[in-house]
Write a structure and sequence with these properties.
CATH superfamily of chain B: P-loop containing nucleotide triphosphate hydrolases
Distance between the termini of chain B: 32 Å
Shape of chain B: globular
CATH architecture of chain B: 3-Layer(aba) Sandwich
Radius of gyration of chain A: 23 Å
Structural class of chain B: alpha/beta
Order of helices and strands of chain B: EEEHEHEHHHEHEHEEHH
CATH class of the largest domain in chain A: Mainly Alpha
Largest interface: A-B, 20 and 25 residues
Oligomer: heterodimer
Structural class of chain A: mainly alpha
Largest sheet of chain B: 6 strands, mixed
CATH topology of the largest domain in chain A: MetI-like fold
Largest sheet of chain A: none
CATH class of chain B: Alpha Beta
């Protein structure tokens, strides 16, 4: 593909990964700006991007700080949820009775709606960071569990037989074979759960109401302050994108040996 | 039979798989393998060659009869790392380097044997020293199999079980690997080898003795000593005695139910 010389001057990673979405976004924003003006839509209903950007720059520090709180809660929740999920997965992948006993419980957790769980958590854990971390953790639990169990079981049959021929203990087989084999699955789970944890933290903030982007969104909604609402959502979205990019970056380095990473363009 | 002197001793060994419909894989195998013998096992597809190797390697427990390694249960030999196993699929761990893969058995074993060659030395022996830091996906099939062979030798086992190790390779690489193996075998003190193959030429080139199994359920159909001088070379393969052995074995294989050369 022939690129104009100015574009060719950019480093390749920027041109390939940043430019296309940036251009797509710009197109969308331009259309949005124009459409809102053309249809004369009230600022309370859908503000034009220019208003949102203006609101953001009135106090960018505020948005970043609230974003940081939400991100922090989500990350703690992710760590907690993933740890529990991995522990259960180890147990369940080694014992079919344990799997049969615990799987229905896991599904029960998955299916319970967030909005129902929120108040319960606050009642149980008070009005601090804990219920938000717990909410995020609950959301991360099931996808990680399912992926981990599959990953621990999906080992190369030849490698497993080889390790058995060496009289390897189940622990050795787990540590040297099952866990590394499961990493591709775990990264898939992470790409799903990290953004999910972010969502969980935001929703929990509606119930706890002390800080974070969720609170900003809630208040802005009550005050019909739509530009602030959109600004908060934009910051949230940006955080989600950055998280995903970070996980992908780490994945590419850790899974250098896996076909999924090697067979990219 | 002077059973105590055999490295591997099979007595009325039979095996029936019983998940689902019962499948009789092997029937009444009685065989004695002396130390340092290179024995090939050939037979039609599905005749139980791999099952036989698994029973000897302690990966399966026979339904009747016995398999003994050095007069004891195969599992004991497995535990004391007396047995090295090389499969058709090298099954190297893709997240480990070549050297890391060769070292894997050492990490699993509780102790390393005295005088056992180091991983680097084995790598050199199979001619892949420059590739120690490479990853399996960067190597060809033949190279991966060489790594698998080095890995199988790292414990310096006295018994090697090789299950169609060159089966997945192209003809030219197979040929080259055949002589590589012979070279290694001679250089490393001629340990006992049980070698399963589909290729008659391979069996004759490599072995001191060839056992032909019948079709399922596998039983011993023929047991032939290969009296060709060592070291064997491409020259040997062109000679009359070689071709006679090959013809005999092919004839026996055909009777046993498969026309593969």
């Amino acid at each position: 593909m022939a690129l104009p010389s100015a574009l060719r001057a950019l480093p390749r990673s920027v041109a390939v990964y940043v430019l296309p979405p940036a251009i797509a976004l710009a197109v969308i924003l331009l259309f949005w700006e124009w459409y809102v003006g053309w249809r004369d839509i009230s600022i309370i209903v859908v503000p034009p991007p220019s208003e949102v950007v203006e609101r953001f720059f009135e106090d960018p520090g505020f948005f970043w700080r609230q974003g940081w709180y939400t991100f922090f809660e989500a990350t703690l929740g992710l760590i907690a949820g993933t740890t529990f999920a991995l522990a259960f997965a180890v147990l369940m992948s080694h014992s079919r009775p344990a799997e049969r006993a615990l799987f229905p419980l896991a599904i029960g957790i998955k299916v319970t709606p967030l909005v129902a769980v929120g108040p319960v958590l606050v009642i149980a854990m008070g009005f601090g960071t804990e219920p938000k971390v717990a909410m995020a953790a609950l959301l991360c639990f099931f996808p990680t569990l399912v992926n981990a169990i599959t990953g621990f079981r999906d080992v190369n049959a030849g490698s497993l037989e080889f390790m058995r021929s060496l009289h390897a203990s189940p622990w050795q087989v787990f540590w040297k074979l099952r866990l590394p084999s499961a990493l591709p699955y775990l990264f898939v789970a992470l790409k799903i759960t990290y953004p999910l944890a972010l969502t969980g933290a935001v929703v929990a903030e509606w119930f706890v109401g002390n800080r974070g982007l969720g609170l900003v969104i809630y208040r802005a909604n009550s005050n019909l302050d739509t530009p602030t609402l959109f600004a908060a959502v934009a910051v949230l979205a940006l955080t989600g994108v950055m998280i995903y990019a970070l996980v992908s970056l780490v994945e590419r380095r850790v899974l250098f040996w896996h076909e999924s990473v090697r067979s990219t363009e | 039979m002077a059973v105590a002197n055999y490295h591997v001793s099979l007595n009325g060994l039979s095996h029936v798989f019983s998940d689902g419909r019962p499948l009789e894989a092997l029937r009444n195998i009685t065989l004695g393998v002396p130390h340092r013998q290179f024995l090939s096992i050939i037979g039609p597809s599905g005749c139980g060659k791999s099952t036989l190797l698994r029973l000897i390697g302690g990966l399966l427990h026979p339904t009747s009869g016995t398999a003994e390694v050095d007069g004891a249960e195969p599992v004991r030999a497995q535990r004391t790392r007396e047995v090295g196993y090389i499969f058709q699929d090298p099954a190297l761990l893709p997240w480990r380097t070549v050297l890391g893969n060769i070292r894997l058995p050492l990490e699993i074993g509780s102790r390393s044997r005295r005088g056992a060659p180091g991983a680097e030395e084995l790598l050199d022996l199979v001619g892949l020293s420059e590739f120690s830091g490479y990853y399996p996906h960067q190597l060809s099939g033949g190279m991966q199999q060489r790594v698998a062979i080095a890995r199988g030798l790292v414990f310096d086992p006295s018994l090697l079980l090789m299950d169609e190790p060159f089966g997945a390779l192209d003809e030219i690489t197979r040929q080259a690997m055949r002589y590589e193996l012979l070279r290694l075998w001679e250089a490393h003190g001629r340990r006992t080898v049980l070698f399963v193959t589909h290729s008659v030429a391979e069996a004759v080139t490599l072995s001191d003795r060839v056992v032909v199994l019948s079709g399922r359920p596998g039983s011993v159909r023929a047991d032939i000593d290969i009296e060709l001088a060592r070291p064997r070379t491409e020259e040997t393969e062109r000679g009359r005695p070689f071709r006679d052995y090959a013809d005999t074995l092919r004839g026996l294989l055909k009777e046993a139910g498969d026309g593969v050369a």
